[in-house]
Amino acid sequence: MPSDDNANTAAGQPILAAADGSTSAYRAVAWASAEAVLRGCALHIITSMGIPGGFDPDTAPAPADRRRLGYEGEQILAEAVRTARLVSPGPEPLVTTELTFELIAPVLIARSVHTQMLVVGSRGMGAFQRGVLGSVSYAATHHAHCPVAVVHTLSALDPISVTKPVVVGVDGSENSRPATALAFSEAARRKVELVAVHGWTDISSLGISVEGWEEPARAVLTRSLAEYQERYPDVRVRPVVTVYRPVRSLLDESEDAQLLVVGSHGRGGFSSMVLGSTSNTLLHTVEVPMIVVRSAHRG
User: Fold this and answer.
1) CA separation for the pair 59, 227 (Å, rounded)
2) Cis bond leading into 93, ω under 30°?
3) Of 98, 156, 207, 262, which residue is the least packed, with the fewest Cβ within 10 Å?
4) What residues contact 113, with CB distance under 8 A and at least 6 apart?
5) 113: three-class secondary structure by DSSP
């Protein structure tokens, strides 16, 4: 079995988690800490006290205000480290921290080039409505260069959740191969079942002919999984095929899962900067942690 699932997991590259003092961000830090232990890598936690427009001469805070912001940032980082250690009380992972006065979204996107995985909460300090994706998580999932894990209302780290399966969306396209590869590696690390969901069509209209759909759909799923089942023979796979769009099935399966993995865009994807309709919809609706994997990310 391979020790890594992509070219970005070179030795020395950490998992990067963003913290802003929100409950959502601390859930993300906890999940990131557990993931770092599974991967045997470091965890780097970053927080930003930057303000829109930056600190130009007209908007820069007074030295006392900057010190106050710095103190608040350090308090956020201290709590984030404490949260990480509650999940992983041993010597691993190595946890480092960073306070920046730059805006966080551009920093995360730039750092994602040299990061195994970026982990963010689904909503930040300014979010109040359930189901609304925060601006940082939105920017990360649309523009990061590495897989992005978005942690929602559940971090799925309790003793029952960690025995539940990993779910992956598989559409048979080249775009879904990196997500499939990462999902197999995540299931192998966790020693749990992998549920592979394949939607036969992207068309949701009931007016189309669906006769004889199941056999070709299962054939596509079988072909898509074959390579990875050989690489990960210990991973038990449960295939799920659906006649229409996979969103409903992925949502249903994620209700009894610890992790959902999807590609950034599927059969109709045309730009590495555009999030596909399936992954975009799921980001706003699932409750378990979800990893978005771009097509440039290879297993």
Assistant:
1) 55
2) yes
3) 207
4) 145, 146
5) helix
pLDDT digits (tens, 9 = 90+) for 108-163: 999 999 999 999 998 755 443 334 446 888 889 889 999 999 998 889 999 999 99
For CATH 3.40.50.12370, list the domain ranges present in the chain.
161-293
Give the span between the Cα atoms of 109 and 144, in whole angstroms: 5
For residue 42, the one-letter residue type is A
Of 156, 125, 148, whose CA–CA distance to 287 is shortest? Answer: 156
Q: Are 112 and 16 in contact (CB under 8 A)?
A: yes
Residue 100 — φ and ψ, nearest 5°?
Answer: -125, 155
User: The domain 15-151 is classified under which CATH number: 3.40.50.620, 3.30.565.40, 3.40.50.980, 1.10.510.10?
Assistant: 3.40.50.620
Contact call for residues 178 and 294 (beta carbons, < 8 A): yes
